[in-house]
Task: structure prediction
Amino acid sequence: MAWLGLDPKQVRLIRHDDRGVAAWRRGGKITFGCFASFQREKPAPYNETKIACHFLPGPNLPDGSLSALYVGTTLILDEWPWDGQRLPLIVDEDIIAGERGRQNVNAFDLEWLDVGREYSERLLIDWEPGARAWSQWAHKRPKAIVELRLQAHEPAFPVSFPGSARSRNTPRLGSGLLRESGASTCW
Result:
């Protein structure tokens, strides 16, 4: 994260569920941004941070671990108990309609940041360790970069080769490209 100019101690990594995938596919940053603007009070996924990096579930890796596809970074401008009246900055009418009447939900004003924008839908990370935790502090659980796609919608690159087993000691794909750019192989 430091190679993006972000302090990992100030960033939450959020791996959204299938509802997030549906929102992203339906309306990209607007619909997904509105979806991400509503979160349960407890556990609080943003946990008083001001910056969140958002991920969608990716394919399971050959060793069975979970991956996550980066879609963008938001600045968290404000938070309040959702009352159905005040709307977040990013509005999608279908998402708002689905949130009306929900209890124990906080609303957030989010703003998409340009930092990391070039990696949206191209960067795949290994969500391990801590796969069960969908919201994590970036500095406590560094994530290995598994893949950096040339284009957002290209097919996934194989992460193992015939006759070889992927292990924690195997170099991650994309590391050569990242090394050439001076970037880290850890998210």
Observations:
- Residues 2-148 form one domain.
- The chain has one domain: 2-148.
- DSSP finds three helices and eight strands in the chain.
